[in-house]
Every structure is written in structure tokens, then in C-alpha cells.
Amino acid sequence: MVFFHEVIHHCRSPHRALCEMLRVSRRHVLMMEPNDSTFMRLLRRMRFSFPYEIFAVVNNDYVCGGVRNSQIPNFILRWNAWEVHQLTSAFLPEYTLRIHADPYWDFNASEENLASRKQTRIGLITGMVGATNFLRALRALQRVLNFVPVLRRQGNKFFCCIQKSTDLKPWLMLDSDGGVIFNRNFQRRQVDAEPRSGAND
Q1: CA nearest 49: which of 159, 157, 156, 158?
Q2: How many CA atoms does the CB half-sphere of 199 hold within 13 Å?
Q3: How many Cβ atoms are within 10 Å of 171's Cβ, its own excluded?
Q4: How many CB atoms lie within 10 A of CB 98?
Q5: CB–CB of 40/51 below 8 Å?
Q6: What is the pTM of this model?
Q7: Alpha-carbon distance 184 to 86, whole Å?
Q8: 15-33 in b/e burial notation, b at 16+ Cβ within 10 A?
Q9: d(CA 124, CA 181)
Q10: How many Cβ atoms are within 10 Å of 99's Cβ, its own excluded?
Q11: Which of 58, 170, 176, 181 has its CA 20 to 30 A from that of 39?
């Protein structure tokens, strides 16, 4: 099993990193990364969220915390179930994979973390109401948002379990040497299932 928590968006190629984890895992890949949703895109457009993790570098004395743990702020690549499905299907097209996705809200920021987010409107709000009060309101809001399924799916975090299997796609089969080949019977079944035009059509 491979497990990672909010790390591959610091890679130069998060997709390549996930594919490598899929390659080395025997059964499961568990990931917790930023979630991509309509509401998160709206928050970014309204400047309540910023696409680059500048605060991560600021909080590490401007020397690390960015892409590949450098001082260059990384882009926050966000995930959703469809994104994972496309990537895993392209990387392992031979096998049937199962994807269990669960977006959710998690406001795990600290007062120091909020103070360094000067690229968003959050800094303006915390300056007015105070970081402590703002965090209390966020934590209360988090419980409500996670309780309502339609709101939970719009969350800022994304948990996903990718379950590998040895089940081949129905159009594939193993040959006598154990190699994967196209199952010609599948194509014949498809042809036989198609309606044939006749004199009464």
C-alpha cells in the first residue's frame, strides 16, 4: 500500500508521481490532496484562495516549502474523481481499477498560517475580526459543511482510495505465456449483439 498526504502537488509532475505510486503498490494507493470543485474555483476567482502556495515558502523562512521543497512556490494542483479515473485508466488500461473518492472540508490553518496569506481576501477579514475568531467560525462552519453531502462534495480536501486488481478488461485475455492479448471473442460478441437490418426494417 502507498499512502501520501498533501505532497504530490509539490512535485514538478504530480501525475507522474501518482503513476509511479500506482506502479510500485501491490493493492492500494491512498491519497489526500487538494480537491477540485466548482466552489473552490469560485473561491479562487473571488480571491479567497490563491493558486500558488506562497505562504508555504513564507512560513519556512523563504528557503523551502515550495516545488520539490525549494523556495519556488508551487502551483496547487487539485484533484477530483474524474481526474483520477482518467489518469489511472490511461496508465493501467489493461486492468479494472476501483476508485473510492470522498471530498471533504478541513480548515486546518493556524493563526500564523492565516497571517501569511496576504494574496487573498482572508488577510483583510482576519484583520477585521481577528485570526482567533475567524478560525473558530471556520471550525464551526466545517462541521456544518461536512454534514450536508452536497456541500461536502464541494470541499477543499480530497481523499481517494485507488484499488488495483488483476481483473482484465473484458476485451483482453491472457495468452498461453501469460501475456495480455486482445480477446477476439469480445469483438465477435459485439458484432453479434448489433441489430441486423432486414426486409421488415
Answers
A1: 156
A2: 0
A3: 13
A4: 12
A5: no
A6: 0.83
A7: 25
A8: eebbeebbeebeeebbbbb
A9: 60
A10: 15
A11: 58
